[in-house]
Write a structure and sequence with these properties.
Shape: globular
Largest sheet: 8 strands, antiparallel, barrel
Number of strands: 11
Distance between the termini: 34 Å
Structural class: mainly beta
Helix content: under 10%
Number of domains: 1
Protein name: DUF4488 domain-containing protein
Keywords: Signal
Amino acid sequence: MKGVLLLILALCTKPVFGQSIVGFWQADDTTVAAGYKAHYIFSANKKFTYNVNEEDGLSRIRTIGGRYSIKGTMLLLTPEYTVELVGGTLERSHIVTGHDSWSIENTHQKTYKITKPVAQETIFKLIKRKKGWCLLLDTWPYYRIKGTK
């Protein structure tokens, strides 16, 4: 019985080079400081979100979300919506951000649907490094962060 369950589990999962991309992947490092760096979240239902560096106080686009698929060594990302900051004022912030100390304050977020989504291709590769699993998207490294969202 245990063997049958393991066989079913193996057939139901689609590992990439022995690993799945499902999870939370942060740019450049496994360290989380005051906030997350830019990161992707890939779900088992083939949805993804990309979030900008949380310390970037000037980026109005905060999230890109949509669907993904894998074709060999190509990862296809099809953005379906963005989450953007609307309104607000440009201020010198007392919270250190990625741009000196400028940030857009007193905003609200709004989700915008992308009416004609276009799939974006990236070459991807999963490799094991000293820091842990690394997802290379073209040449940009993203590291798996466990125990997150």
